[in-house]
Specification:
The complex is a heterodimer of chains A (about 300) and B (about 425). Chain A is an alpha+beta fold and about 300 residues long. Chain A has two domains: about 200 residues, Multidrug efflux transporter AcrB transmembrane fold (Up-down Bundle); about 80 residues, Alpha-Beta Plaits (2-Layer Sandwich). Chain A is built from nine helices and four strands, in the order H-H-E-H-E-E-H-E-H-H-H-H-H. A four-stranded antiparallel sheet of chain A has the order 2-3-1-4. In chain A, a hairpin with a 6-residue loop joins strand 2 and strand 3. In chain A, helix 7 packs parallel to helix 9. Chain B is an alpha+beta fold and about 425 residues long. Chain B has three domains: about 210 residues, Multidrug efflux transporter AcrB transmembrane fold; about 90 residues, Alpha-Beta Plaits (2-Layer Sandwich), CATH 3.30.70.3400; about 90 residues, Gyrase A, domain 2. Chain B is built from ten helices and 15 strands. Chain B has a four-stranded antiparallel sheet with strand order 5-6-4-14. A four-stranded antiparallel sheet of chain B has the order 8-7-11-12. Chain B has a three-stranded antiparallel sheet with strand order 9-10-13. Classes of the chains: A alpha+beta (about 300), B alpha+beta (about 425). Strand 4 of chain A pairs antiparallel with strand 14 of chain B, so a sheet runs across the interface.
Chain lengths: ~300, ~425
């Protein structure tokens, strides 16, 4: 039996340290919302040969009366050059203006053979609505999880179990968020998808432990509460770790492939997911159980005092 | 019956069949009807994977909120234009609350010369509805149509479209029908022919009826197209994105490759770590994956990157269900139970945790389905179906297979189940 409860301060320390790192990173890197949420316009053109970026700047500013940041990227696999235009401000861009811009670019660089390869143009209010709905979904799902655990785990005083499971979930979403911040990945719909995936994964993980606690509490009614939790977690430990290994390596593989073929969207999605999986496994074993014991012990003490 | 030796082979055979259909699809005829089950090859991918166009249109220069009927007409215009471009795989949705029309369509597989900006701009233009004589001369324009509606005419015994013209329209139409008795008047939206009724007699009252064996839906469609010609505004968009087909297909290839390698790696891990239950788990996972593919490809759900995240999560939970059970069987064996008791208790005791874990995830996915939007819907759908499949594959199918296999004498050695070597 491993003494998870007795070692709780170490685990809490680790988690707090990670959160501190996240806060420091937040001050250094700041939060960057993707234009999916805040609105804006990014255009990506494939082209051949050489172009002068200063010229591009001038053309965009002249045609659209908007500042622009330009960037040239080269696709590692196809060796294709791309011109990325990130228009300043959060407004969208009408198709007519976009066509005008493309014409102006083609006139200036007739040999470059500009082809639009990607455009992403979002009105700020549509982006905000999208963000709001995503967050509403996350919050509602969290509440319902607590209610379900409350009902199903009445035997081990379900409300506290549900709340502690939620603390573990919050920890995991925070870990995912910190990954986005530390690696400077703009928050986009991937963030919502990854956060939801990790919530699903972590709640499943936590419930398996609770199930074991529930079962063991019926087998031995006199067992001290910390021993009950330590025993239950130890019994499920191999399972927790094996599942985490299987999922972790699957996602690492996805990340590896995306890295090799340089597919940004998948990389930005797989990296926070690997962190979330590790955090999900860790928070279940080291946080949810010990925290629940603390709550129960506190309750016993106040009952005795009364 | 469930514990018979042959059960394993029956279940495995069914799984092999489902996997085959999931990969390659199936086409067969029952009598005169051909039934086609679409396999993963015909899966429908979202524009983040396959590339395509996504645009949100709103009325241009309109100082009031458009009515629901007007939005529906605007949608009809867009649908007709997409039809004309032969873009049939598309989603056109009206967001009545915010007075917007959302259009999404992926590239066709053979798309090479296609200008997304032009397409987006053209879809929003004001529709021009014209009535033309056989020589192609315009006789009446859409702006002269007051209204069109589909009704069932009991005298004629069929569905018809009733047209009401304004004064100018009535005059022009009367002249034209007088000249063109027994000829056709063709109705065009932009340059697309939408109907070509024959003139039976001169129509003077400014009210006409188009008949011609339409069913109720065809009549309603035609009426809506004619009304759309009188729509008082055009549509514009400053919220649109496009992803080129080459960029899109790259992401898909990578996901497929990574998925196959990850699946094999997980199976090897299960096989080495859990031996016989691990072997059964691999087959169960195959069922879950195949079922998941079918759940996406048969109803032609649009699969996006978050949708694939949902698939990864639910397969992860499938692995978990198998790991929990295999661990439990091992534990029961080591506590001294006989093999059959260990298998029975293993599944029974593992079930309550698999059940609670999966139901909570089901709740999460249902919430997303109702409150999410866009790409989140795909995530919710694949997660929900994945969890349902998890019960079927990770619990029922794997239990049937393992119980059946354990009937074979040479498979009764506890070592195969992770137990200690013991005399049986």
């Amino acid at each position: 039996m491993i003494r998870f409860y007795e070692n709780r301060n170490i685990y809490f320390g680790i988690s707090i340290a990670i959160i501190l790192i996240g806060i420091i990173a937040l001050f250094i890197n700041g939060i960057s919302l993707d234009i999916q949420f805040k609105g804006g316009a990014i255009l990506k053109y494939a082209y051949n040969g050489e172009i002068d970026l200063n010229n591009v700047d001038a053309i965009v500013t002249n045609t659209l009366a908007r500042e622009v940041s330009t960037q040239i990227t080269t696709d590692l696999v196809t060796q294709q050059n791309n011109l990325v235009l990130n228009l300043a401000g959060n407004e969208g861009l009408s198709v007519e203006s976009q066509q005008k811009l493309e014409e102006a670019l083609k006139n200036e660089f007739p040999d470059a053979g500009f082809v639009l390869s990607e455009s992403s143009i979002v009105e700020p209010f549509i982006g905000k609505q999208f963000l709001r709905r995503g967050i509403t979904a996350i919050v509602l799902a969290s509440i319902l999880i607590v209610v379900y655990v409350w009902i199903r785990f009445k035997r081990i005083s379900g409300l506290s179990a549900g709340v502690m499971a939620l603390v573990a979930l919050f920890h995991d979403v925070l870990a995912v968020f910190i990954t986005f911040i530390v690696f400077k990945i703009p928050l986009d719909e991937n963030f919502i998808a990854v956060a939801l995936t990790i919530i699903g994964y972590s709640i499943n993980d936590t419930i398996v432990i609770y199930d074991r606690i529930r079962e063991n509490s019926m087998l031995d009614r006199k067992i001290p509460i910390e021993d009950l939790v330590n025993k239950s977690i130890t019994q499920s430990l191999t399972r927790s770790i094996n599942t985490a290994i299987a999922v972790f390596f699957s996602i690492v593989l996805v990340y590896g492939f995306a890295q090799y073929y340089n597919i940004e969207s998948i990389k930005n999605f797989a990296l926070p997911m690997t962190v979330g999986v590790v955090s999900g496994c860790y928070s279940t074993i080291c946080l949810a159980g010990p925290l629940w014991v603390m709550w129960q012990k506190h309750k016993q003490k106040s009952q005795k005092a009364a | 019956m469930l514990r018979r030796k042959s059960t394993f082979f029956i279940v495995a055979l069914i799984i092999a069949g489902i996997t085959y259909v999931a990969l390659f699809g199936l086409k067969f005829s029952v009598g005169s009807k051909t039934i086609e089950i679409k396999g993963s090859g015909q899966m429908r991918f979202g524009i983040d994977i396959r590339g395509g166009v996504d645009a949100v249109y709103e009325p241009k220069d309109l100082d009031r909120k458009p009515t629901d009927a007007e939005l529906e007409q605007a949608r009809t215009i867009i649908e007709t234009r997409l039809d004309a471009q032969n873009i049939l795989d598309r989603e056109v949705t009206v967001d009545k609350q915010n007075a917007r029309i959302i259009v999404r369509f992926p590239w066709k597989s053979d798309e090479t010369e296609f200008n997304p900006q032009e397409a987006i701009a053209e879809l929003g233009e004001t529709a021009r509805l014209t009535f033309r004589d056989p020589e192609g001369n315009i006789v009446v324009e859409g702006k002269n149509v007051k209204e069109a509606h589909a009704v069932y005419n009991s005298q004629l015994g069929e569905n018809v479209v009733q047209l009401v013209f304004d004064d100018e329209g009535a005059q022009l139409f009367s002249e034209a029908t007088g000249r063109l008795v027994n000829q056709q008047i063709s109705i065009y939206m932009d340059e697309n022919l939408i109907s070509a009724p024959k003139v039976n007699e001169q129509i003077t009252g400014g009210q006409a009826v188009i008949q011609g064996g339409m069913d109720a839906k065809e009549a309603a469609d035609l009426a809506s197209k004619i009304n759309a010609g009188a729509l008082p505004f055009s549509l514009t968009t400053s919220n649109h994105s496009s992803i080129s087909p080459t960029l899109g297909s790259g992401a898909l290839d990578v996901m497929v490759k990574a998925g196959i390698v990850a699946f094999i790696a997980v199976c090897l891990f299960m096989l080495f770590y859990y031996r016989l239950p691990g072997f059964v788990a691999c087959i169960a996972l195959l069922l879950q994956t195949a079922g998941q593919l079918l759940a996406l490809s048969v109803p032609q759900i649009t699969v996006t990157l978050p949708g694939i995240a949902g698939v990864i999560l639910s397969i992860g939970m499938g692995v978990d269900a198998n790991v929990i059970t295999s661990e439990r069987i091992k534990e029961e064996l080591r506590s001294g139970k006989t093999l059959s008791a260990a298998i029975r208790y293993g599944y029974d005791r593992a079930f309550s945790s698999v059940f609670d874990g999966n139901i909570t995830v089901m709740i999460v996915s249902a919430i997303l389905w109702f409150f999410g939007s866009g790409a989140m819907l795909s995530f919710a759908y694949s997660l929900f179906t994945g969890v349902v499949l998890n019960f079927l594959a990770g619990v029922t199918a794997s239990k049937l297979m393992l119980s059946s296999l354990s009937q074979y004498k040479f498979l009764r050695n506890p070592v195969l189940y992770g137990g200690r070597r013991a005399a049986q």
